[in-house]
Amino acid sequence: MTVFIIRRLLQSVVLVLVMSVLVFLGVYAIGNPADTLIAPDATEAERIAIVEHFGLDKPLYAQYGKFLANALKGDMGNSFKFNEPALKLITERIPATLELAFAALFITVLLGIPLGLYAGFKPSALPSKIIMGVSAFGFSVPVFWLGLMMVMTFAVILGWLPASGRGKTVDLFGIPVSFLTWDGIQHMILPAINLSFFKLSLIIRLTRAGTQEVIRSDYIKYAKAKGLKSSRIILVHVLKNILIPITTILGLEFGRTIAFATVTETIFAWPGMGKLIIDSISTLDRPVIVAYLMMIVIMFIMINLIVDIIYSLLDPRVRLEERA
Amino acid sequence: MHSFDKATTWRKALALAFTIVLAAAGGLGAQTVLKVGTSTEPASLDPQYSTTGATQQASQQIFETIVSRSQNLRMSPSLALSWKEVDPLTWELKLRQGVKFHDGKDFGSDDVIFSIKRIPRVPDSPSSYKRNVAAIKDVVAVDKHTVRIFLKTPSPQLPIDLSFIYVLPSTTPENATIDDFNKGKYVVGTGPFKFVEWVRGDRFVVERNPNYWGQKSSFDRVIFRPITNDPSRVAALLAGDVDVIDNVSPVDQERLRKDNRVSLISKPGVTMMYIHMDSNRDKSPYVTGKDGKPLDKNPLKDPKVREALSLAINREALVSRILNGAAVPSGQFVPEGMVGYAPDLLPEPYDVEKAKRLLAEAGYPNGFSITLHAPNDRYLNDEQVAQTVGQFFARIGLDVKVQALPYSVFITAATKLEYSIFLMGFGNTTGDAARGLTAVLATYDASAGLGANNRGRYSNPDFDKLIKAAAVENDEEKRDAYLQDAARVAFKQDRAILPLYFQTITWAVRKGLSYEPRMDEYTLANKVTIVR
């Protein structure tokens, strides 16, 4: 297992390097950060001074070389716009995004698996049809539309929940969290549901398909014939066997949630990383974009690693060394 | 049935009890809190870091400038009670007495001197205040509440420049970092509000300064929440999460106008939208004959063609249909009331026949092909405006393609002079025509700092002469006349750019509140008042 993990980490270094090159080339192809950052009414002398200061007058390879040298020392550079370390700007916002992502994951697992199991066991029952209908809806509606509709319904018309923002936070081990206050939870409900809706639909469908496949298998028939309680059949024999694909998808989806919660965060004015990265892209604040994407790459690698380890725990036939 | 009634009674009793408790709590020193949903967020809380509107809006709540800008961008007394020219290179300011900083320090000459001298030392800002102190050679205290400013060159614009200098106490450490400011450590001003906290992306909180020398706020506490998404900001207002929102889009205005829970407040702003043309080169990249072959000369170089294009645009229709009335047609750089406004320069009338005639006279009776570029994420309905202008040009016989791009891509290419004709905007935040005329229309000269935004490279020595004369003219009336004449050369004689309209800025407030709208688009909490 150690060899496997080391090899994975080495791969990630290469990936991160490739990513940073791509981002540099990408930003270069889009436009000149100096043009978007500098005040529209700045004089030419001011412009030149800033371009020189950010090193934007140097050839791209020189800019990249400087970035790499600093990055090796752990310095990802200062944001062009805020003049603060890019990493600091990002890490300030991680807790909000993570909390929202975990809340969405929680909803997905807690609702998705039981509903999927039910729909798999009783495919022709009316509730199953409703569940599947709603999940088809969840697949097909755009997140931003659903988000706005939720805001209109529950905040504007019914007035049950706040329309946006994060609400009151309390510090837990020095990290601000909102799930410990009622105000915070109220603020979190709509964005978390909005963020989880697609994943929920996906997990319902996966669980249902897996269940239907497994209940036809011989060992389930045998267990039934043996007179095992159906709760035991479901929880032990069915669930365990359908959990592997679900774990994979959940892992990937969790990563996607953190990396691309942008739309939900924008609609609900949730102070997470998504809003930061969108703003940074529109002003071509390169240090922030690079640091963010490199962090996301590392995060995906870590998630995949954890998923692989969970596999081996769920299914003893899986050997990590062989898979690597 | 019986039990149902009982339940209702109980619920009523409970509701009553609740109301009493709430009312009691209200009586016992409840705070009046104002919540503002803003479309932008400051870059930093160092008031001398960034000139961007979003950052100044935050600075304005806590700090004050030496001279203040009124809602119509007229210079008015603030920390300086008066300013006068002793000789062309020396100005004397009388400062307000009895003003205290939030930390209790008395305001005086040392703070003004410190603040002016600190600006060049604020590092690494992409939009620095350095230009506002560029003309200043030295500042000295005459007494505790009088300072003299010595200039390198005569600068009639000095009061305007001083209206951009936010005053910090002279006790602010030299080595205060931007991080210190963002945590609120040295966010100490003389303004109507004191700093409470700032959580980037979530909230910026201030409380009333009980010792403020001016009009004190009606609110104990103000919470600014950045809600960048337009529909979300409107939803937050309708849901009662916030009391005031800024930058209401034209589409939302229509809906909110019918809603009696809110009222809309509008004011023509200072952002002038215009069509910029590649008017100085012999070949222009996006102009061809209708057959797609290059033309032997650049038609945009001919003032007749530019006039024809201007006549082809129906500005009234553009404003009422495409912007739902959220704009005012313009014929020059600044709206009425600003220095340099020429009363005779009205918006160009719409005249297709004359436009066609002028095109024919210029040698293009059958028109030509052109691509109009525009940003699609920067200004009010920018892409639709460009599409419409393209249609207007098509009516006088041009083949027009419209290409809208994200601002980051657009502005890079426009600065490299890669376009032939494009839609652009300029914010006249100084309340004066000089900066816009100099930046957009003066002959491009990087070393002299002229024409920084002249992406069409218009160049007319007569115009340049007038601008330069205005720059050193201390007599307000003469300066106004120079700027007006410059505007006449650019807009009437040459059609150097084609002014379209001024964007209107709109706020929405909950019923029971009122806001004094400002041309510079800032949302200032102490200008929100309770009306009963």
Can you characterise this structure?
- The complex is a heterodimer of chains A (324) and B (532).
- Chain A is an all-alpha fold and 324 residues long.
- Chain A has a domain at 87-284: MetI-like fold (Orthogonal Bundle), CATH 1.10.3720.10.
- Helices cover 76% and strands 2% of the residues of chain A.
- Chain A contains 14 helices and 2 strands, in the order H-H-H-H-H-H-H-E-E-H-H-H-H-H-H-H.
- A two-stranded antiparallel ribbon of chain A has the order 1-2.
- In chain A, strand 1 and strand 2 (175-177) form a beta hairpin.
- The mean pLDDT of chain A is 83.
- Chain B is α+β, with helices and mostly antiparallel strands and 532 residues long.
- Chain B has 3 domains: 8-41 and 180-268 and 505-530, 3-Layer(aba) Sandwich (D-Maltodextrin-Binding Protein, domain 2); 62-162, Dipeptide-binding Protein, domain 1, CATH 3.90.76; 269-504, Dipeptide-binding Protein, Domain 3 (Dipeptide-binding Protein, domain 3, Roll), CATH 3.10.105.10.
- Chain B has 16 helices and 20 strands.
- Chain B has helices at 2-27, 53-62, 109-118, 130-133, 158-162, 178-182, 230-238, 250-257, 303-312, 315-322, 352-361, 382-395, 407-415, 433-441, 461-472, 476-493, and strands at residues 33-38, 67-69, 75-77, 80-87, 90-95, 136-143, 146-151, 193-199, 203-208, 221-226, 244-245, 262-277, 287-288, 327-329, 369-375, 399-405, 421-427, 497-510, 513-515, 528-530.
- In chain B, the strands form 4 sheets. In chain B, strands 1, 8, 9, 10, 11, 12, 13, 14, 15, 16, 17 and 18 form a 12-stranded mixed sheet that branches. A 4-stranded antiparallel sheet of chain B has the order 4-5-7-6, with helices on one face. Chain B has a two-stranded antiparallel ribbon with strand order 2-3.
- In chain B, helix 14 packs antiparallel against helix 15 (461-472).
- The longest helix of chain B has 26 residues, at 2-27.
- Mean pLDDT of chain B is 89; it is low at 1-8 and 18-28.
- At the A-B interface, helix 2, helix 3, helix 5, helix 7 and helix 12 of A face helix 6, helix 7, helix 13 and helix 14 of B.
